[in-house]
Amino acid sequence: MKQSLTVNGRSITTDVDDPRMLLVDFLRGTLGLTGTHVGCDTGQCGACTVHMNGMAVKSCTILAAQAAGTDVVTIEGLSGAEPGSMHPMQAAFKECHGLQCGFCTPGMVMSAIDLVNRYPGASEDTIRAELEGNLCRCTGYHNIVMAVQHGAAAMGR
Amino acid sequence: MSATLIGQPVRRKEDVRFLTGAGQYTSDIAVPNATHAYFLRSPHAHANIRKIDTTRARSAAGVVGVFTAADLTGVGGLPCGWLITSSDGTPMKEPPHPVLAQGKARYVGDPVALVVAESPSQAKDAAELIDVDYERLPAVVHCVETLKPGAPQIHDAAPGNKCYHWTLGDKAATDAGFAKAAHVTKIDIVNNRLIPNAIEPRAATATYHRNDDSYTIYVANQNPHLERLLMAAFVLGLPEHKVRIIAPDVGGAFGSKIYLYPEETAITWASKRVNRSISWVAERSEAFLADAHGRDHVTHAELALDKDGKFLAMRVRTTANMGAYLSTFASCIPTILYATLLAGQYTTPAIHCEVTASFTNTAPVDAYRGAGRPEATFVVERLVHQAAVEMGIPQDQIRRNNFIRAFPYQTPVALLYDTGDYEASLDDAMKAADVAGFAARKADAKKRGKLRGLGYASYIEACGLAPSNVAGALGARAGLYEAGTVRVHPTGSVTVFTGSHSHGQSHETTFAQVVADRLGIPIENVDVVHGDTGRIPFGMGTYGSRSLAVGGSAIVKALDKIIAKGKKIAAHLLEASDADIEFKDGKFTVVGTDRSKAFGEIALTAYVPHNYPLDKLEPGLDETAFYDPTNFTFPAGTHICEVEVDPDTGAVSVAGFTACDDFGNIINPLVVAGQVHGGVAQGIGQALLEHAIYDPESGQLLTGSMMDYALPRADDVPSFKVSHTVTPCTHNPLGAKGCGEAGAIGAPAALMNAVMDALEPLGVKHLDMPASPHRVWQAINAARA
Predict the structure, then answer these.
(1) Contact list, B17 vs chain A (CB under 8 Å)
(2) CATH of region B481-627, choose from 3.30.360.10, 3.30.365.10, 2.60.40.1190, 3.40.30.10
(3) Beta pairing partners, B751
(4) How close B251 comes to chain A (CA, Å)?
(5) pTM beyond 0.95, yes or no
(6) Domain B297-465+631-784, what architecture?
(7) B706, B711, B715 member nearest A129 (Cβ)
(8) ipTM above 0.90 for this complex
(9) What whole-number distance in Å separates Cα of residue B629 and Cα of residue B194?
(10) What is the pLDDT of residues B400-430, one digit of tens each?
(11) What are the tens digits of pLDDT across the range B627-680?
(12) In what order do the strands lie in the sheet with A71-73?
């Protein structure tokens, strides 16, 4: 089945043969965008979070077919074309040491950007509550919360 | 460059790739023409396998191969890396651990068959077509129940399901201590079973190369050389030089990726059979079922005190669950890494510990962050807390009364502490936690109908397990050194090859800080390579908070060799004697003169040796060192937790957590704080949320998903207060002790002591982890009744 969508600003028309294919497998397998990770089978860890039409979604809970006609942004699409350039939220995670093994990080960053867009000036409590859908086993969240606050400030939120 | 990089919060070199989606974890690495593996696992905790019919699966769409134990001829069992000798002198029971279940399945999740197909879903679909004729047997999951007469027998080679009975310490001296005690505190403890849950599931991709009869295996693993040694030499019978193991970016591990598992072993073997690369990625449910679990101890402990609250003796009896098979280091966790830590920070003169390890119909249990030391700390610090309550001594005072103050200190349980200042960390933690203001906060909580409690844990851990000869005498079947290579390139930039492995620990930054600092070159000129047996001479990997203390020390030794050779080259160029050359701030200088050569000039000379002492010195600037420590390191500190309990719901919230740790010298405080935060969160997870539960009748894992097993989320933990005191390690060149596990070691005891402090006034005498609302509410209401 042919379908079209936009991924990281690029229009893509592709065949999705397996109707069971998840969006995350389409991004990772078909497009080679391996920055989006799979950490669980049950929609709880949030490592697969991407933006779809500007909102954070878990790409393991969406069929590739459901993404037809949407605008998808992955972690690879956040930063500019310059090698090493980063979105302010990515830079904030580095500055605040908000990542260790890095596996949850892309999903965490995508959720963080969505969070600060929805809650300008979010308090620590709000940030913690809103990050409920993203599990990190390394950082204890302390520096992630700080990174989200720094990132929000840098984004003017 | 004169400003030192040591102690600076340098931002991480590895971050850009992780933050921009350029990390390369095992499942991100595309191997051409790879097939996909799926493991059919036993749905039963204990069952005879009468017959496996794979006919239908073999002919299913996309299937490349289906394999069972019957196919794995010539393949050995998975070995255990540590021999524990029982108190009666007999070796521990080591029942066979087949790669695929052989005749019997022994836990839910035990791999029974391997299906290889063109796609993951084809492999999974085909696995459903395998008919296994199981004869279900009664199962036993509890470490104490399994030792009782009449319990189902799991292995022929382990009668009574006993693996070993091991003791440490002087029993007569301990009994004598109890005989003269003014007070004895007794406690029963369950150290709850945990499931590590690194966010990256285990994964492996194996390729057989026909051209030279070799293998390449990408695997999410903490110690690729050890993995290679065990898999090649002990299981598959392959020469090591024909096996290359690459552990690329690894998404967290916490112990669970130390071990040689059946899955990567099976697909490596099968890759030659199907002559295709085979890729396997665990589903989260498989991680719950078949990753090695942690903890699972049942303990009775007693502390004898004199009338002033001075500890006289300690007696500990522990039963430890090994699971269905012995995982790679399972046997040494509740013995060598547990009983030896029971002195804690105290001068207790006599300690006796008895450990019985048992087999059950559960997943194998092995090291999980802290590995034995959180269990020991929990025993010691719960005993100390309770003794203080029973004797009416303030919690800090009873600790001060018993602290070790003179070093080196020989404990009665084998370890020799080199250095420490326990009172300094206690004082610092009490200040940071504002213990002085606690009474007011408690009164305020009371007004709001809440119960507030404060708990201490003054922990010690032993890291950088060593030296190899002593470990060997204690049963280790491996060395415990580390290797490092420093390769200086002709233009003066440096690649470091380390046997340590980073799966979050930040070695690419901290090791580069050490190298850049010693060589006086910019940190941008230093890259650290890890996790590849094809590029790194050797390595024992990363676990037990050993990387900086052992792996970092190996790099320092290699740097010493580089500098020594550089001095010889400089002496030649400067027409001076070797002894007159000093190396400082990136320059080789003739002492007392301004005649010098920059590091880069020496590097270039080493590789373009036109003006060079070729008659007495080899060209090149590339040195390898192995470092075998002379002792463990002993990080220690005090953690203080403050909780608020809602008596109406039983909910416990962590109001504050303070960690004051002595990790020796610190290379990067930002990284160290991150390690503490993560460890503390896992410790809070153990104490409040996490509990792996098997159904006692069926042996089914009831907490088999992130819906049923509560990992700490951002709103389950507070922001932490972290500080340090420093007594440098006396026996390694960096003075470093290790920081990776301290949080997980101190936090459970500090938190449970805080909960007990809140509940003791109501008459609550006992509470097991995790202190879930249900349990706390029940304890409050039982005490009120």
Answers:
(1) 102
(2) 3.30.365.10
(3) none
(4) 5
(5) yes
(6) 2-Layer Sandwich (3.30)
(7) B715
(8) yes
(9) 31
(10) 999 999 999 999 999 999 999 999 999 999 9
(11) 999 999 999 999 999 999 999 999 999 999 999 999 999 999 999 999 999 999
(12) A10-15, A2-7, A71-73, A49-52, A55-58
